[in-house]
From TrEMBL:
InterPro entries: Glyco_trans_1 (IPR001296). Keywords: Glycosyltransferase, Membrane, Transferase, Transmembrane, Transmembrane helix. GO terms for molecular function: glycosyltransferase activity. PANTHER family: GLYCOSYL TRANSFERASE FAMILY 1 DOMAIN-CONTAINING PROTEIN, GLYCOSYL TRANSFERASE FAMILY 1 PROTEIN. It comes from the Eukaryota. The chain crosses the membrane at residues 73-92. Residues 1-25 are annotated as: Disordered. It comes from Trapa natans (Water chestnut). Pfam families: Glycos_transf_1. Residues 386-498 form the Glycosyl transferase family domain. This is Glycosyl transferase family 1 domain-containing protein.
Amino acid sequence: MARNSPADVDDSPSSASYGSIRDRFPVKRNPSHYHDADHFRDLQGCSGRGRSGKSRFNRKGLLWLFPFRGRSLFYTSILFAVFMFALASVVLQSSIASVFGRQGSERGRMLKEGLKFGSTLKFATPLQQLVEGGGLDRARFQRRIGVRPPRIALILGNMKMDPQSLMLFTVVKNLHKLGYTFKIYAIEDGPARSMWETIGTHIWILDPEHYGHIDWSIYEGVLVSSVEPKEAISSLMQEPFCSLPFIWVIQEDILAKRLTFYEEMGWSHLITQWRSAFSRANMILFSDFTMPMLYSMLDTGNFFVIPGSPVDVWSAEKYLENHLKYSLREQYGVHEDDLVVLVIGSSFFYDELSWDYAVTIHTIGSLLIKYARRNDAGRSFKFIFLCGNSTDGHDKALQEISSRLGLIPGSIRHFGMNADVNGALNMADIVLYGSSQDEQGFPPLLVRAMTFGIPLVVPDIPVITRYVIDGVHGIVFPKPNPDALTSAFSLLVSDGRLSRLALAVASSGKLLAKDMLTSECVTTYAKLLENVLDFPSDVILPSSVSELQQLAWEWTFMAKQMENQEMTDMNHIDHENLPLQKISVIYNMEEEIGEHAKITLQNDTEMLLQDFPSEEDREVLQEIENFEESEEVEMEELEERMEKDPGEWTDIYRNARKSEKLNFESNERDEGELERTGQPVCIYEIYGGAGAWPFLHHGSLYRGLSLSKRERRLKSDDVDAVSRLPLLNDSYYRDLLCEIGGMLAVANKVDNIHKRPWIGFQSWRAAGRKVSLSTAAEKVLEQMIQEKPKGDVIYFWARLDMDDGVSGMKDVLTFWSMCDILNGDGCRNAFEHAFRKMYSLPPQIEALPPMPEDGGYWSSLHSWIMPTPSFLEFMMFTRMFVDSLDSLHSNTSTSSFCLVGSTEVEKRHCYCRVLELLVNVWAYHSARKMIYMDPQTGSLSEQHPIELRRGFMWAKYFNFTLLKSMDEDLAEAADDGDYPSDFWLWPLTGEVHWQGIYEREREERYRWKMDKKRKTREKLYERMKFGYKQKSLGR
């Protein structure tokens, strides 16, 4: 009898038979599983008949049922044991699954339909190649002369002392070590400002009025943290900043939690706004693989995950400062001597889906039987399952499984994710990770558990074994292997307490968790920037990622900053239990929509409260309509009876033209155009998109010059360069020519648009880089023009070294060396070949015009003024030079070939930087006086005096007579159709005129005049011969 007593249970692993577990299951109450219920009834019936034959069973046991003896009995027993083990596994799995299957919401059931046991959830993105690419490995072995570090604009949503700031600060600080330079902007000030100032020299606090006044083009890329700067980056969604690399780092989930609310409220336009903002970013970076699922409503294919954040370690350490383990056990009803095993699963199944935990229970079934059935001297094992919410009914399901397995009451408990998760981790003695999912990122709850100093028992999932060493940082067991799990678990337990190995593993794991994912996070960011950003020719390439060693979160640095600023209020921060922070940009947009809806509702209510028209009002309205209709009919009848004289066609046409001129809207002129009347000079500001509008000036001195039809300023008289030069309709050549394309458009039939003796140009970038003319400089410039209205002189105010960051090196770098630096070391070569082809020079003659090394300034950013005739001469030279330069690229088979660029951006704007410096070569060798004007003070200083140029200028090549004859030769060839190639650029860049065209036009005018006289004589002859006869009326 003692042998058959249920009180005596063998705790050895071999005795944990699934057959005994099966016999303890009651009849299943789920009506959907009748087959299983009948099966259990049959088993119970068999056991009852066994008990009736008590004496026989005691005498022979089960052997009386089998007639086998000896070796046959041995083999038969083995086969029977294998069969019963497989059958028990299936029954146990289906039973547990049925219990958990009744829990969960509709969303969980929908997920279950697409998931099966052993399936894996994986975040896949096409952007993975941006991290796995070669980056700058090839460029580092190429010849390169860099003069400035790569510049990145960093926009912070806030400057708080929190784990998000710690992560980003660590990444940015290591990128700074590699050679990147950061310009830091922030939406609001905060206690972390001194910390960020160690990376950036000055931090700019942005306000809404200046969101659009930042020239993003001076940076190689923009890095944005948090959703808070959404309005500040609105200009990045407009030209000319649309192609600038933009990376958005999002670590908070507040917006994701509001998206479902927007969908319920029908605020689809608000979701569209956020989706449009997300689509502008080249990459949306998250630090956890669950975040893309939360933001899936805004996914446009640019989501990417870089695992690694100190938020879990931060949260655990702050929690330990204010909570003790024994008090937590007392709070949750756990005895101090109990050994608590916390069972957690995949982070994708925390909320509602319970299949993963059903598999977990099935895996640890033998473990539960061995440890959760006994209670030694007041010490017991408590298995707590951390999943779902407290109100989901999971606890009831676990208790049902506990009773079926015959476990001690209270040995299995449920703990909801909406409760104190840190408290559950802190009061545990062992954390068991029982998920069968192959995670992509290291489970965050394991990081917290390690920080609390809890030993881990984990399966051999690759993402875990990549960091956790078996026997050092935790105990690793092969999955799915219940026996191996039981053996691994037994290593941490000795006599109902934690073993020495458990304490050593917990200590090592705590050290590992502190900076476990730092190296991977920082290096992935560095590789990402190498593959996403474009590094111009004048940029010093950053160092290789391999130079980063011993990476760790900047815990010590942040702690010092907090101590210096006496941040004592940070001690009580609990990131799990804090209410949601109110991010202004999210709630401001919601409030705007709420106010709009409220106003609409009030207007509708007022309309409803107004009196409806009475019957008398309707009668009066009907009488008025009838009277107006009768009058209209009467007037039509009178007009039909009256005789009308339409008059001559010329009079009708003249009157129509006069009415068009009187139309105010079609001929409206703004205040600036009226003020320009009588002015001797007009400066055209060249821009290519709405993002450049805030940098443009207003007044009598300036006028806009738009390179895009759709991006012209509203209610202004800006010049449409595309309408004046059809070549700019082709985006390929518009990108190649840049600002020079706008100048060619103005020079094309210049008398139709510009009738002033002086003309000037200024790129919108001059204002963005603080080198545009101040009010004082404008007055000095106008005064100089009035005093000396004539003369071959060029005034410029944007210096080459100021713009491109090579100031301080002007005594070393010459004009051509600076041109090479800015154009991929190909400026001299390209200029020499283009100049040789332009003038048809033989190979033995030098074709590169010499430039002085006197240390003077050179013009940049197309910011200069000169007399209008000089401008037309310069445009004549530019057209031929551009055509010659284009022919060098047209002869190649590669469409993306560029002599003066290496990156994709430089190839797309291939001619821009060479043409930007072309005015210096032309002005120097055509003997123009070059005067530099300080843009702030207006002080003047002559550069490269003409007296010092003698003997160095190539005046014969820049003589106006020669250039004019070359222009006429090209025009004659174009007029005759004698094209040098299938595509010829020169005729498309401006007017085509030569003497033959003038003579042909004069001949056509003479022929038209003679034909008109002939027709007049014939008409007079007919009148004299036949007389004038009036047409009879009525025919």
